[in-house]
Specification:
Elements (H helix, E strand, L loop, with lengths): L1 E8 L7 H20 L3 E6 L5 E7 L3 H9 L7 E8 L12
Antiparallel strand pairs: 1-3, 1-4, 2-3
Bound molecules: the ligand O=C(O)CC1=CCC(=O)O1.
Length: 96
Amino acid sequence: MLFHVAMTVKLPRDLPAEEAAGIIAREKAYAQDLQRQGKWRHIWRVAGQYANVSIFDVSDNDELHQILSGLPLFPFMEIEVTPLLRHPSAIREDDS
Ligand SMILES: O=C(O)CC1=CCC(=O)O1
């Protein structure tokens, strides 16, 4: 199942810089591991914002929830999830 996920990061202003850097490094490793597994298909920076839009390819809602709630930045994010399905006018065969 494909999901569009919009994540906006809101780190507290008083979070010590070293702590923030550690969380961000763990987030990167976590995200890159899921990309290698093919579960996190796309990640794009939203221009001008500390935010991304991503496409996840997971087996069900439960797996998506497990992945998102395991993000090191999860406590500092607003997340919006939109389930996706193939559009009847789509012509790419390798994209569903
Ligand atoms: O920087 C972000 O948008 C938050 C984030 C999600 C995965 C990652 O590596 O950073």
